[in-house]
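User: Before I run my own analysis I want an independent prediction to cross-check against. Here's the chain; please return only the structure tokens and, at the end, one sentence I can use as a sanity check.
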Amino acid sequence: MSEPRKFRRPAMLDPRDADQLIGGIDPAVESELAHSSAGALVARARTQAPDDPELTQRLVSLVENEGIETLAELWSRSPSDSLPGALWRVYALREWVGRDPRTVSERYKLGQQRQPVARVVAGAAEPPGPAEMLQLADAVLSGLFTGELDIALERAAAFARIVSTGSALDADWLDDNDRADATVVTRRAESLLGTAEALESAAAKWRSGKLE
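Assistant: Structure tokens:
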């Protein structure tokens, strides 16, 4: 199996892009840019004609040439029940798996034993494991994912639920020896559960045509 494509850190941006996509801009404009960029990636995958082809091409070029981090920073301030908010959560899961694959894999295995309901998601025999989560996230975030977005979001949510369960179990075991570490892991479990719930909600809104 080939290694998942790694996103490069942003290099020097064109001044026009920097002015539009870096912080410090009006919140309303920032929100519009977050939604436009998220919509552009999804439209690209679905081969739909976007409202602003020139903007879409510039955003796609940023992802391909500079890295996804610039857009992810923009999405991170979006509501959880929005398209950019959902893409931010997919990005955050991807970054965590990429930074600490061993820990994620261990907690995923723990969680699998206690989350039988999440093992069957949207017709798939298994939710994605860590390696599959990387591949799924790469496809979605590069605008190359051609499947149904709600399925992708639900699979990412299932992954987050399983790792959340594994993290909670890990915290229980740590609590006997290191309460400080246990507290950190417990907070991670709670955060992952929140991520799963947000992604599930986003998937439902996408199916009803209300995810913007």
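Sanity check: Residues 56 and 181 are 44 Å apart (CA to CA).
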